[in-house]
UniProtKB/TrEMBL annotation:
<keyword id="KW-0808">Transferase</keyword>
<feature type="region of interest" description="Disordered">
    <location>
        <begin position="367"/>
        <end position="420"/>
    </location>
</feature>
<dbReference type="GO" id="GO:0005524">
    <property type="term" value="F:ATP binding"/>
</dbReference>
<keyword id="KW-0479">Metal-binding</keyword>
<feature type="domain" description="AAA+ ATPase">
    <location>
        <begin position="37"/>
        <end position="179"/>
    </location>
</feature>
<comment type="similarity">
    <text>Belongs to the DnaX/STICHEL family.</text>
</comment>
<dbReference type="InterPro" id="IPR012763">
    <property type="entry name" value="DNA_pol_III_sug/sutau_N"/>
</dbReference>
<dbReference type="GO" id="GO:0003887">
    <property type="term" value="F:DNA-directed DNA polymerase activity"/>
</dbReference>
<protein>
    <recommendedName>
        <fullName>DNA-directed DNA polymerase</fullName>
        <ecNumber>2.7.7.7</ecNumber>
    </recommendedName>
</protein>
<dbReference type="Pfam" id="PF13177">
    <property type="entry name" value="DNA_pol3_delta2"/>
</dbReference>
<dbReference type="InterPro" id="IPR004622">
    <property type="entry name" value="DNA_pol_HolB"/>
</dbReference>
<dbReference type="InterPro" id="IPR050238">
    <property type="entry name" value="DNA_Rep/Repair_Clamp_Loader"/>
</dbReference>
<dbReference type="GO" id="GO:0003677">
    <property type="term" value="F:DNA binding"/>
</dbReference>
<dbReference type="Pfam" id="PF22608">
    <property type="entry name" value="DNAX_ATPase_lid"/>
</dbReference>
<dbReference type="GO" id="GO:0046872">
    <property type="term" value="F:metal ion binding"/>
</dbReference>
<dbReference type="GO" id="GO:0006261">
    <property type="term" value="P:DNA-templated DNA replication"/>
</dbReference>
<keyword id="KW-0547">Nucleotide-binding</keyword>
């Protein structure tokens, strides 16, 4: 016997075997039980969603002679003839090749004859939108007042091309795309019957590629079965359909985050030359970024598969949320432009380069006038002091240096040459040593960072505030890198911006503004993108090695609350809380 394609072999024979479309199936079953059969039906929806299959099942149900409620039974004479395609009263017409007025006139002539075997004569007209307007108009009168024994079922993927006068005379059923879950379940059932070994991830990918079409899903499964010998792996499906693995996308993200332009472009071009689908790559990239954001807020979420969790943890976890959101926006915007793109690869490359360019440092400050907060390794080995103690010493020395500078801007303070250097104010610069930033990262809390990020977005609302506008404006382009109860480690594009923020923190303190903005006074530490990437890489490496430093202890100086004056009026108000004092 010749090989039969899976979508034909496993075409549903009863309503119960139909995947999805429960609302349509239930309506048709009820119509048969209640004997409320309409004279014309219009089935419309995407391809491969069961329009023709349900039309055939409905036709068999109408002519089934079984007295039970499980019609069509599949055993009576009418059912057997219908399954063999030899039933004289179930007529299937392909409107794509029989769309003229002459064909319609022949159909009208045959309609008046009574059924030969069944109770109804059912006409299933597929792709009815392909019929000419004149042919549909010729059929109009017959559809409006057909003989009692005739039922028309029209199927179309484009109902907008069907004449409104035809649609108004039919009961319309809109078929929806089959859900991913339903397709996966059906594939598992068929693979079990066909003894096909297949990975769960391969099933999920096939369901995703089918785009809601059950027929397309089985066609893909058929092709994968022909390609693979023993077991269908997810990578086999990706190879056949030109899709990069999640591991590849994760690696691409890491190179993008590290600003490795050459590797990013080379990887994209290699994938393009291997025939990989750039639109699918963009879509999968968006999906993985979405999953990484879900995991940021819910690390144990069941909405994300184990493979995705592994990739996100390996390649994306160290990157800040704002960076991923910016990338997500860029990719979504680029994906919408693909229909008009002459070269999809150029569009994708440009989008990623645009994102990288936002991270580059545009200006570099002179190294002669910089203040460094550092935990120099040599100093640490000589003093044998604990990390937290040294951090406190560093902060005290910084404050001392600032006081000296204010007294005499021409004098240079020589405070611990290895940890702190300062040039003349106002030209001095504050840059934090990588080791100190690592200590801040170790002492940070991911949960606090997420809470603060949400409130931090409101800083734009204070830009015109007379008290806080200066502070809000200086933080306009910043994003939170890490946070704890007492401090925020923020990131800006350039070293110059970071220096300005650090100088403002040193001279005036952001603590009052932070209390207003996020509800708690916190100290601000600013770094640029280059240092952030360098420290992130070092943090991941040392975390694996178990050589991370101890967290730094940061205190936030705040102004003491003013105590109310001990006046006669205040004393009276203690006794009489509702007292109002008015002057004559």
């Amino acid at each position: 016997m010749a090989y039969q394609a899976l979508y034909r072999k496993y075409r549903p024979a009863t309503f119960d075997e139909v995947v999805g479309q429960r609302h349509i199936v239930q309506t048709l079953k009820n119509a048969v039980v209640q004997n409320r059969i309409a004279h014309a039906y219009l089935f419309c929806g995407p391809r491969g969603t069961g329009k023709t299959s349900i039309a055939k099942i409905f036709a068999r149900t109408l002519n089934c002679t079984s007295e039970n409620n499980d019609r069509p039974c599949g055993h009576c004479e009418n059912c057997r003839m219908a399954l063999n395609g030899s039933h004289p009263d179930i007529i299937e017409i392909d409107a794509a090749s029989n769309n003229g007025v002459d064909e319609v006139r022949n159909l009208i002539d045959r309609v008046k004859y009574a059924p030969m075997e069944g109770k109804y004569k059912v006409y299933i007209i597929d792709e009815v939108h392909m019929m000419t307007a004149s042919a549909l108009n010729a059929l109009l009168k017959t559809i409006e007042e057909p003989p009692e024994h005739v039922v028309f079922v029209f199927a179309t993927t484009e109902p907008n091309k069907v004449l409104p006068t035809i649609i108004s005379r039919c009961q319309r059923f809109d078929f929806t795309k089959v859900s991913q879950k339903d397709i996966e379940y059906r594939i598992h059932v068929i693979c079990e019957q066909e003894k096909i070994a297949i990975e769960d991830e391969a099933v999920s990918l096939i369901a995703l590629l089918s785009d809601g079409g059950m027929r397309d899903a089985l066609s893909i499964l058929d092709q994968c079965r022909a390609y693979c010998e023993n077991k269908i792996h997810v990578d086999d499906v990706r190879q056949i359909y030109g899709i990069l693995t999640k591991e590849d996308i994760g690696s691409l993200f890491e190179k993008l985050y590290q600003q490795d332009v050459e590797d990013v472009i080379r990887n994209l071009q290699d994938a393009y030359e291997r025939g990989m689908d750039m639109k699918r790559l963009t879509s999968d990239f968006i999906s993985l970024l979405k999953e990484s954001i879900i995991l940021d807020y819910s690390p144990n979420s069941t909405l994300v598969g184990e493979r995705s969790k592994s990739v996100v943890q390996k390649y994306m976890a160290a990157s800040p949320l704002p960076f991923r959101i910016r990338l997500l926006d860029e990719l979504m915007d680029t994906y919408n432009k693909y229909p008009y793109a002459s070269n999809v690869l150029d569009y994708l490359e440009t989008a990623l380069l645009k994102l990288i360019s936002q991270s580059y440092e545009h200006e570099k400050a002179a190294e002669k006038s910089e203040i460094r907060y550092s935990n120099h390794a040599n100093t640490a080995s000589k003093s044998h002091e604990s990390t937290s103690d040294k951090s406190e010493i560093i902060e005290k020395k910084a404050k001392k240096a600032n006081k000296i500078a204010k007294k005499d801007s021409k004098a240079e303070s020589d405070v611990s040459r290895e940890t702190l250097k300062q040039s003349e104010i106002p030209n001095h610069k504050i840059i934090f040593d990588d080791e100190y930033i690592l200590q801040l990262l170790v002492g940070s809390d991911k949960k606090i960072r997420k809470e603060d990020e949400y409130k931090y977005e409101d800083r734009i609302l204070y830009q015109t505030d007379p008290d806080y506008g200066k502070y809000a404006g200086s933080l306009n382009t910043s994003s939170i890198f890490a946070a704890s109860d007492h401090y925020l480690l923020i990131c800006v594009n350039t070293e110059m911006e970071a220096n300005e923020i650090n100088l403002t923190e040193e001279k005036e303190s952001y603590a009052p503004f932070m209390k207003k903005l996020i509800g708690k006074p916190k100290k601000i530490f600013a770094i640029d993108m280059n240092q952030k990437q360098r420290v992130t890489k070092d943090f991941v490496k040392r975390m694996k090695e178990g050589t991370l430093p101890s967290p730094v202890d940061v205190t936030v100086p705040m102004e003491e609350e003013k105590k109310p004056e001990n006046t006669e009026e205040n004393e009276l108000k203690k006794i009489f809380p509702n007292l109002k004092v008015e002057e004559d």
